[in-house]
């Protein structure tokens, strides 16, 4: 990916208050559109093992199906972009971030709704500071199942999600174009409507955490937490820093350390 400076957007300042924000034209549309084809082929391959429920949802809610080791170089380049890493670091207010994992949310036309959830419920890290960047690879309209957020819900930790839309203001991120970015905190409750269009909603979500965060046990957690621990954090003992090739450092204020710059770990 060409080195592109993120374009400032006043809406990014909403992140701390609302737990989410939408940044228009954060990346050149042509950069994202060029990645759409390789992502489509990769997602088709990785989604081949999904069951009917997961296919309708557009992703698996219980296991990771994507990883940087199997991804083509064009996909790794986008997922590990320092431009996106800087946006994530700025949103979290930290000096350096690593990629925890990424996912292809390809909700087919007629695909089902995604229920309210909070990402932190399945993150096997000791920190609360996790941010997800959601990038549409195609234009996303209101009928295609865009993201819906309970604004401010990230301030209150783990929540009873029943009736949450009656307790918090609700915000919908639509329409979106390739190059736009939606950011949300790991504690921000969010969902999506069914895809009522005849087109697949193609989007990629990348989750970041501050460098230095430590791994925690998945004991008693949901299946996705155990899957992330086994895949993205394999071989790292609970209590140890979450570092290694599977969770690459993608942005550091002042420049990447030499070893990580040379080896991408």
Q: Beta-sheet strand percentage?
A: 15-25%
Helix content: 10-25%
Question: What do the pLDDT scores average to?
Answer: 90
Structural class: alpha+beta
Could you state the CATH homologous superfamily? q2cbj1_9rhob like domain
Distance between the termini: 18 Å
Number of domains: 1
Instruction: State the major sheet.
Output: 6 strands, antiparallel
Backbone shape: globular
How many H/I helices? 7
- Could you name the CATH topology? Jelly Rolls
> Tally of extended strands?
10
Give the strand line-up of the largest sheet. 1-7-4-9-2-10
The string of secondary-structure elements, in order, is HEHHHHEEEEEEEEHEH
Q: What radius of gyration results from the CA coordinates? A: 17 Å
CATH class: Mainly Beta
Low-confidence stretches: 1-10, 261-265
CATH architecture: Sandwich
Structural overview:
It is a single chain. The protein is an alpha+beta fold and 265 residues long. It has one domain (10-251): q2cbj1_9rhob like domain (Jelly Rolls, Sandwich). It is 23% helix and 21% strand. The chain has 7 helices and 10 strands. It has helices at 14-18, 29-46, 52-57, 73-79, 82-92, 223-231, 258-263; strands spanning 20-23, 96-107, 114-117, 131-136, 147-150, 170-172, 181-185, 190-192, 201-210, 249-252. The strands form 2 sheets. Strands 1-7-4-9-2-10 form a 6-stranded antiparallel β-sheet. Strands 3-8-5-6 form a 4-stranded antiparallel β-sheet, with no helix packed on it. The longest helix has 18 residues, at 29-46. It is globular, with a radius of gyration of 17 Å. Mean pLDDT is 90; it is low at 1-10 and 261-265.
């Amino acid at each position: 990916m060409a080195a592109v400076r993120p374009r400032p957007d006043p809406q990014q300042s909403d992140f701390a208050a609302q737990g989410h924000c939408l940044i228009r034209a954060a990346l050149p549309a042509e950069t994202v559109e060029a990645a759409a084809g390789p992502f489509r082929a990769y997602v088709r391959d990785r989604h081949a093992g999904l069951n009917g429920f997961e296919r309708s949802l557009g992703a698996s809610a219980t296991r990771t199906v994507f990883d940087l080791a199997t991804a083509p170089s064009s996909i790794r380049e986008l997922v590990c972009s320092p431009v996106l890493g800087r946006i994530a670091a700025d949103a979290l207010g930290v000096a350096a971030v690593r990629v925890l994992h990424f996912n292809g949310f390809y909700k087919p036309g007629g695909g089902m709704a995604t229920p309210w959830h909070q990402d932190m419920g399945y993150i096997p890290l000791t920190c609360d500071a996790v941010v997800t960047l959601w990038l549409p690879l195609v234009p996303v309209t209101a009928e295609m199942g865009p993201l819906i957020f309970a604004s401010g819900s990230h301030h209150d930790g783990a929540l009873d999600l029943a009736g949450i839309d009656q307790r918090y203001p609700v915000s919908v991120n639509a329409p979106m174009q390739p190059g736009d970015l939606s950011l949300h905190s790991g504690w921000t409750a969010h969902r999506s409507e069914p895809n009522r269009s005849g087109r697949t909603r193609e989007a990629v979500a990348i989750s970041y955490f501050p460098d230095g965060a430590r791994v925690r046990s998945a004991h008693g957690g949901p299946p996705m937490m155990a899957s992330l621990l086994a895949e993205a954090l394999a071989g790292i003992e609970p209590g140890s820093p979450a570092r290694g090739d599977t969770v690459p450092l993608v942005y550091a204020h002042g420049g990447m350390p030499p070893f990580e710059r040379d080896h991408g770990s």
